[in-house]
């Protein structure tokens, strides 16, 4: 589950950039996406409720200080970097080769961090 500021904007980005498929939409506040055989739930933020009385859900406040990231193992990191860049992904830097792995990092519209990684 990822908390987003604008469900429609995020849905459209995931479909356009990552080629996700919309599996369901619920009341304008959540979208279920199918991506690489897994589901990602996008939800709008919200305050505490009976089930989580002290929790407020919000998109990342400081994108440069993430507490988590999603990592996708791929066959061709440089090739996917080019494809995703052409689709509108904004990478933090060009693919970097280190310790037998090629990696590149990008963010979604709300600042959630993603990594594509390939063994070299």
* CATH homologous superfamily caption of the largest domain: 2,3-Dihydroxybiphenyl 1,2-Dioxygenase, domain 1
What is the number of E strands?
9
Largest sheet: 5 strands, mixed
Please indicate the count of domains: 2
At the fold tier of CATH, the topology name of the largest domain is: 2,3-Dihydroxybiphenyl 1,2-Dioxygenase, domain 1
Radius of gyration: 15 Å
CATH architecture of the largest domain: Roll
| Termini Cα gap | 31 Å
The level 1 CATH classification of the largest domain is Alpha Beta
Mean pLDDT: 96
Could you spell the SSE succession in H and E letters?
EHEEEEHEEEE
Q: Segments where pLDDT lies below 50 for 5+ residues?
A: none
Helical content stands at 10-25%
Can you tell me the overall shape? globular
DSSP strand content: 35-45%
Number of helices: 2
Alpha-beta classification = alpha+beta
Oligomer: single chain
Overall description:
The protein is of the alpha+beta class and 120 residues long. The protein folds into 2 domains: 1-46, Signal recognition particle alu RNA binding heterodimer, srp9/1 (2-Layer Sandwich), CATH 3.30.720; 66-120, Roll (2,3-Dihydroxybiphenyl 1,2-Dioxygenase, domain 1). The chain is 19% helix and 38% strand. It has helices spanning 7-18, 77-87, and strands at 2-4, 21-26, 30-35, 38-44, 69-73, 90-91, 96-98, 101-107, 113-119. Strands 5, 6, 7, 8 and 9 form a 5-stranded mixed β-sheet that branches. Strands 1-4-3-2 form a 4-stranded mixed β-sheet, covered by helices on one side. A hairpin with a 2-residue loop joins strand 7 (96-98) and strand 8 (101-107). The radius of gyration is 15 Å and the shape is globular. The mean pLDDT is 96.
